[in-house]
């Protein structure tokens, strides 16, 4: 697969003399490569639509271009079916411990708020909505139809999700990133960048905040400070809705991984990732039910 990916990157029409093509670590839905062409370097993202995950590359492209214009993501250099080429940014990829650092967390929340407030102003065409309850129901239906090893868990999960949706209640819509893993945050020493827009779309801001917390192991104190910074109101005003969305985010990550166990060909331990996220989900549900 890696040899095929390198060969594909070398033949992209945007390059005149592609050299030093290397695979980048971290992709769990795409193959990412670094390419030098003359004096410039680029990141090549190879991947077709992924219907089982609701990933549509036209949507990723539209959001990537809007994020570039908003100044929060690297510039789009080239696109063709199955390939997206971005400017390379000399920056460090964050890890979960970096996100938990108090100074970094403040900067990240500022970036997320900026995305939510500004990105929609730079869209020039339609983009998808990412409603996590519909996303989770779709995953559950597919997993049942595919005979997933996790099928026995699905009825209880869907019953639980109905309660979570009621607890979230009415929402405001923003253009969200919807995949706030540490690996999607870059720090160049002066500013932060947010990359990988394949799940982007209209959603509640609570989903990005919940995903940021659940994916990176934030403490309750950090979660409350995050809500207070983002909304500029006491955390208690949205605490129960936020905790419900946190459970929903973890359920989505668990169902995503269960689905990837069946459908993905990438070299990644999805079974271990499923266990990690279902453990996090069960812990979050216990906390939510105590509210």
From TrEMBL:
The lineage of its organism: Bacteria, Pseudomonadati, Pseudomonadota, Alphaproteobacteria, Hyphomicrobiales. The keyword Membrane does not apply. One of its GO terms (molecular function) is ethanolamine kinase activity. InterPro entries: Kinase-like_dom_sf (IPR011009). It comes from Roseibium aggregatum. GO terms for biological process: phosphatidylethanolamine biosynthetic process. Keywords: Kinase, Transferase. This is Thiamine kinase. GO terms for cellular component: cytoplasm. It comes from the Bacteria.
